[in-house]
What does this fold into?
Amino acid sequence: MKKTVACTALFALAFGAGTVSAVQQLTVEEQMGRHVYMDKGLSLNRTQSCQTCHHRTAGFADPTNSRDPYNTMVSLGDDGISKGGRNAPTSAYCGFSPTLYKVDGEYFGGMFWDGRKTGAVLGDPLAEQAQGPPLNPVEMNLASAGDAVIRVSESNYANLFIKYFGADFFAVLGDDDTDDGYLDTKVDKAYANIARMVATYERSPEITAFSSKFDTGILTAQETRGQGLFKTNCSSCHTDTVVGSEPAPLFTNYGYVNVGVPVNTRLLDVPGTVYDGYDLGLGPVVGDTAQNGKFKVPTLRNITMTAPYSHNGYFTTLKEMISFMNDRGGLVPEVDQNVTSATGDMGLSGQDIDDIYAFLNTLTDRFR
Ligand code: HEC
Ligand code: HEC
It folds into this structure.
């Protein structure tokens, strides 16, 4: 009898009954965000949702890329042709990044590899980020914020928004919907509220889980050795202690650095891509050449699942990426300005790299 019970529990875990109960535990706001996150109706031809490029099976990065990281480095847009010039990062653990700010000439916070969603408009970089993809021509490709609000009004979960925000939530349509990034029209406000719900869902335990071995288990001797090497060589940027309101370390200081990632020549050959082999990152966003070539320090949670690596996906495997941090492998930087001296000369042995790799493996969530 006991045996049967154990089997049933195992069966339930393996076949996703756990997911159902997790969903039921989501708040109303998180559930609304979840509907939007998974709604292909927010892309022009209804072919893709946020989840298409940020899926659980790839640590909330692009599963098409992580399945074939050598050949597929960037995401395909809704039009079936266009490709962006940057590797899709995880959409998990982003909710702790503060609004972009500057201290002693260095920038911190904001969203995207180059910080262009600063958080200054909505007071939340993650919500501001969620306004981007539906209207991005190489992603979901809708024409305007008004169009996105219309798509939500036509969805089978529209009633949740009416119940929560009031009967006039969708009555704003037809108002001026020029998408200027400001909150000056009713449509802008409705679109902002939709984005805020998406951000709430991205912060929920279904995406930002804190369920890794690092969070809940005991590390082996090798993993512990790797953790020590990581502290010495990596934690000046990938902070291994709690920052701000984080409940546990996210392994980023939210800063921007040029670590000297090379041009991804394989990306230059990809038809439809906007990549030109010279991505200046933060520099043009803040209008300061002293920031050229700098990209956001990414979180390393779920890093084993999110291949390829770096902003242009140059590195196919995690070990290649760690090895590049160690000695730069004689590679020429894509942007030869403002390159940091904090990476590239670490003197790590092959064993050290294996140990750091073992430690990074402990940062993978056990998804429900
Ligand atoms: C076609 C693929 C695609 C779709 C669809 C897509 N994204 Fe992304 N996402 C990307 C890429 C590529 C980037 C990196 C772009 C950059 O930094 O310039 C990104 C960046 C992000 C980031 C920033 C992470 C960070 O650390 O800065 C978040 C969060 C995110 N997306 C969430 C979403 C949400 C929410 C949606 C749906 C509203 C969405 N994405 C739809 C490909 C996609
Ligand atoms: C001086 C700051 C700094 C140090 C030190 C540093 N990193 Fe990074 N790391 C970065 C930045 C910035 C990026 C993104 C670079 C880019 O794409 O242009 C990055 C990217 C990565 C990535 C790819 C993440 C992704 O989502 O694609 C991994 C993995 C990584 N670092 C691991 C390490 C390890 C392991 C160490 C120590 C051996 C280390 N880093 C040391 C700043 C640093």
Summary: The two ends are 26 Å apart (CA to CA). Residues 127 and 195 are 5 Å apart (CA to CA).
